Amino acid sequence: MHKFFMYIFEVMANSKLYKGSLNTIILKLLEEQGKMYGYEITQKVKALTKGELHITEGALYPALHKLEAGGLLDVEVVKVDNRLRKYYKLTEAGEKETVNRLAELEEFIRSMQQLVNPNWSID
Amino acid sequence: MHKFFMYIFEVMANSKLYKGSLNTIILKLLEEQGKMYGYEITQKVKALTKGELHITEGALYPALHKLEAGGLLDVEVVKVDNRLRKYYKLTEAGEKETVNRLAELEEFIRSMQQLVNPNWSID
DNA sequence: ACTTATGCATAAGATATTTATGTATTCTTT
DNA sequence: AAAGAATACATAAATATCTTATGCATAAGT
């Protein structure tokens, strides 16, 4: 792709990822997909959100390591085409935590809609 | 209220405020209400979200000061019952910025729903 | 050959929040 | 009347989460 268009795309794709949502996104994707590796997650998020949300590697990899350290994820290292892939999947604890995080996120979204879209609220 | 029940309430009300959303909440409330003071904002958010979202003072006051310093808010100090109130309202720049922030937030919510609620997505 | 894409990683810096205090007045309950 | 709770502001230290920058290495495209 030409550099100019890449620049344009960069600017367009600069939609904010609200802090705290990354872990929930990771957990949810793993719940759906079974297992994924880091790079795959970044691409999947781009695809699902049509380029709106951009997961940076500097955020993703530390997050994966932390989730693993916290016992929510298991890793399996695989070599494909002479390159490493680290496949992550939910542990049992991870599955339970995913339910909680999703409930929290949905609650947050509901709350935000009450604030932002007050015609839905009672008062 | 008894300390035990306050504790219980504290725990219950511990729903996460995703980082980055506070400024947008402030701007949106001011857009709706015209003018508000800090303490009023904390109470309004509690009321609108039925206790789900809890804006801490340690986050709110610095945020208000920064929005003011950035030219998005104007202040008016009023003495009521021998106590100070600092009423904030949107400047013209603040009104414009509110539109942008709300659009960003709605875009974020849309993206999250695509991720969390994939039955709405195309693929 | 050179660039882009794939795939991992980490460190430094920025930023937004929580937690912990602090001050002071008024209202409510015992 | 005393004590606690609510009202109203504020700030500093600690923590968390992210961006930006950088690094390494292989494969694929141009």
From TrEMBL, chains A, B:
Q: Which residues form the Transcription regulator PadR N-terminal domain?
A: 26-97
Show the Gene3D superfamilies listed in the entry.
Winged helix-like DNA-binding domain superfamily/Winged helix DNA-binding domain
Molecular functions (GO terms): DNA binding
List the signal peptide residues.
none
UniProt cross-references to InterPro entries, sorted A to Z? Metal_resp_DNA-bind_regulator, Tscrpt_reg_PadR_N, WH-like_DNA-bd_sf, WH_DNA-bd_sf
Matches recorded under Pfam families: PadR
> Is Mitochondrion there in the keyword field?
no
Name the keywords, alphabetized. Answer: DNA-binding
Write down the PANTHER family for this protein, in alphabetical order: PADR-FAMILY TRANSCRIPTIONAL REGULATOR (PTHR33169), TRANSCRIPTIONAL REGULATOR RV3488 (PTHR33169:SF14)
**Protein name as it appears in the record:** DNA-binding transcriptional regulator, PadR family
